[in-house]
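chain and backbone:
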Amino acid sequence: MAQKYYIFFGVIVLAILAGIFAYPNYYNKSVDYLNHKMSWTLPHFFEKPYVLGLDLQGGVSLVYQADLSQTADKTGAMSGLRDVIERRVNMFGVSEPIVQIQGQDRLLVELPGVTNVEQAISMIGQTPYLEFDEERTAEETKQILDIIKQVQDAQTKKEDVTKIANWQQALQNPYFKPTDLTGKYLTRASVIFDPTTYKPQIQLQFNAEGDKIFADVSGRNIKKPLAIFLDGASIIDTNGDGKIDGQDMYAPIVENKITGGKAVITGDMSTQAANSLASRLNSGALPVKIGSPISQETVGPTLGAVSLQKSLVAGLFGLLAVVIFMVVFYRFPGVLASFALVVYVALTLAIFKLIPVTLTLAGIGGFILSIGMAVDANILIFARMKEEIKSGKGLAQSIDEGFKRAWPSIRDSNFNSLIVCVILFFVATSFIKGFAFTLALGIIVSLFSAIFITRIFLMVFIGKWAEKAKWIL
């Protein structure tokens, strides 16, 4: 019999600790007051802030469209692009960025806490796209130059350019064409120095797949130039004008087939410029090109704070409504279930901090919904208890039978809800994922609350005295 009191005491201690961890302000203020009045040195409770999403904290949301026209493995390229940009924004200390693929060729980038759109675009744009291009044949060059001339003439005459056959070729480099070797296969870039001239160089190391592609590309271009481009521009700009005019283009002549997966970039550059370029390449060379964002949105911190406040008020009203319902319809067991519900809220919020869960408006909506679902199990249990009491069974036996007979229904309904949450989390967009995750977490904790905590409360507080006052049940 004493065991249930030990468990009850443990639950109360756990609930208090979880509540203080979830919201330590009042506890720490009380500690400050006692330390000031009594000259004590009591420590503050450990503080850990909630991780807030862009819609609550404010920030920047950008949508990019990748150029997959030259890419065979579109899925792999987009996955690589996502990983590289995520690594890039993490380097700038952005808290909990969200980088997700949308559809086939779009990438969503959400940066909480960043309110400067231009800064965010610049941050992402600093990630370079590295490519190695081989020389076109004379026929290909002539064909593209002819189309460029036709387009220029049409523009001068203000005619419709799209009526020219293959007019899109005018957008291509007439002298070089892309190969399969890009920064996607780059593993490391390091600065080395020429042993003769002592000028800085950049050594590129490719992975095993890049090694094979590099060997193939260099093998078919012996005694030909192989141009190296960064973000569509020459890797080395000797006169600083940022243009590719033939003189600036870094296109070394391939002397032999290159194996080993290593390439060296040379040119008239300072050690500082070489280190900067190597750092940019190591931070992630984009596997595919992206231009300017096709969509951008800024959420101010003030709007985020208002949304958070309204969400908390909605959650409080929802909790009070559930408590009133339970007390009115189930009387004393409803009171105990309400206390269990408060413990549930404290535990869930503490878990949100510990994981941590990035809280968004949708996520808070899922948590508020889970508050209502948290009492579903209690309602089923209490309904079964009423039936057992009406059939003439004793109170202790009615409580035990109520839990046993209600469990299959509780298990099945919550399991089905969890299945839907899992499907939403893996299939839906980021907005719905937050809702699904917090709802699933709430359902799991609510099962613990109803089956374990409510039962302990009933066993401790409902004894023989209740046999004489069954109306309270």
